[in-house]
Amino acid sequence: MLTSIKTNSLTTDGQKLGMMYFRVAIILFGAQLVMGLIAAFQFLFPGLLFELFDFSVARMVHINALVVWMLYAMIGSTYLMLTEETGHEGVAMGLGKLGFWVLTLAVTIVVLVYIFVQVGAGTETTLWLINEGREYIEAPRWADIGIVVVVLIFYFNVFATYMKGEKTGIMTVMVANLLALAGLYLAGMIYTDNISMDQFWWWWVIHLWVEATWEVFVGTLAAFALIRLIGAKREIVEMWLWIEVLMLFGSGILGMGHHYFWIGTPEYWWEIGALFSALEPVPLIAMFVHVLYDWGKEQGIAQGKGEAGSVITNGPAMAWIVTNAFGNFLGAGIWGFFHTLPQVNIYTHGTQFTAAHGHLAFFGAYATILIGMMYYGLQKAYGVKVMSATFKSKMGIFLVTFGVLGMTVALTIAGYEQVMIERGELGATWNAFFTAQELPWYIQAQLWRAIMGVVTFIGFIYLVWDLLTIGQVSKEAEA
Ligand code: HEM
Ligand code: HEM
Ligand SMILES: [Fe+2]
């Protein structure tokens, strides 16, 4: 991966830029996991690193790094597929490169400031220079403005290339969806000191990202990947894509009501949120069926020709994309559905159950397919026709997935205990909150989460090791 840009089978600057974004993404992913581990051990040993590296900081960097690495990998994937989809080498890619360096410098400064300025008053100055205080998207105002500028450059690259090149269905969805995705970021910059209004707008970014525009984005990635990796028919894949887009926006937009149950918004959100968010798993089932159906069909065709499975041109990428179909459905669809009705959410709101869902959904729906795209990029970079999974690829995907599933189960148990004891029995008081967390079931669950976190991390090391070596290995195998 490190030498993937120089090797050099990448023909356009867009593809090279894609690989540059991937590298930073994987580094930030590593940083995310280290922060998660620190926070997980702080659950077990509350005094750990106290006043040196507080839980609040570890948690904040953990989830901000998560969002940022995913955005990096999304931008990388877009640059990577741009040439292939449009048949055009890309417009103003030099500007895109400048944008990459500006963004990376800004991200580095923001993270360093988070780490070195851990506590202090929240004022107008800190809002501009240190931290905006909005969970997941905490970048200070100066960085916000920088991000907007860089994203405008990125969007210009994509849009101008699209206008000059071939306009496939996949690219049309991509271009329209990216406008919505980027535009929503602005909703997270509206400043008000009314906490209800602040949360109201904050959810426009968080929910409408992960349950609408990001989902559509991975829909386009899956469509693209299915065509490239298993030779799926474009007409069929694009037909699925349009259906998924329709369903995702149909339920996802008003599904936002499931965050408006208890924040001071009008009561009609109970009904709207309950109904539309309960429909949200439907498109996720469609995406699941789509990937597995196409995969099974192409396998069948290959077997019919007596060439068992050889249609898959990139083993690890395909494995991650199939994991995505399962993970998206389970993490977002099932774990989301569990707590989406207000009658249930009144008990589960803000417990470790939410964290269980958050982990499996972000991992299943996004981490998986973005890692798959990194493998696809490597295949292009090394110019190999068929990239087969190595032992390291298998250990990577198995341990990371097993670890995240294990963490999810542990957190679900912790959440269940909180619902039973803190909410059900003790009536959700301040004391109940602490009592529930001191009981053995909760502590054991947190212990298992930490253990499974370590498993995830070992898997991550295999993954990085594989990303660094698989290109060369496949190239030699082919020669
Ligand atoms: C890939 C898609 C999804 C991702 C990445 C995701 C992620 C998350 C995260 C991180 C939170 C916690 C937010 C916070 O800090 O307060 C959350 C909350 C929630 N999610 Fe999802 N989610 C997804 C899809 C869904 C779906 C499809 C549903 C419903 C069917 C759903 C239902 C909920 C509900 C009800 C909450 C509020 C939990 C509470 O009250 O504490 N999510 N989601
Ligand atoms: C080494 C593995 C990991 C460990 C030990 C870990 C640990 C943690 C901890 C301790 C928190 C704070 C929970 C709280 O405030 O109660 C957290 C939050 C979170 N983590 Fe992780 N994490 C890991 C990996 C991941 C991965 C792979 C993802 C997604 C791709 C992820 C997504 C999240 C999200 C979305 C939250 C916020 C959840 C919420 O508040 O509802 N984490 N994690
Ligand atoms: Fe939501």
How would you describe the overall organization of this protein?
With 479 residues, this protein is mainly alpha-helical. Helices cover 78% and strands 0% of the residues. The two termini are 19 Å apart. The model has no long low-confidence stretch (mean pLDDT 94).
Q: What percent of residues adopt helix (DSSP H or I)?
A: over 70%
SS elements, strand count: 0
Q: How confident overall, as mean pLDDT?
A: 94
Structural class: mainly alpha
Shape: globular
Evaluate the radius of gyration.
Answer: 22 Å
Q: Main β-sheet, in a few words?
A: none
Low-confidence stretches: none
Q: What is the string of helix and strand elements?
A: HHHHHHHHHHHHHHHH
Please indicate the percent range of residues in DSSP E strands (runs of 2 or more). under 5%
Distance from first to last alpha carbon: 19 Å
Oligomer: single chain
Give the count of helical stretches: 16
In this entry the ligands are: protoporphyrin IX containing FE, fe (ii) ion
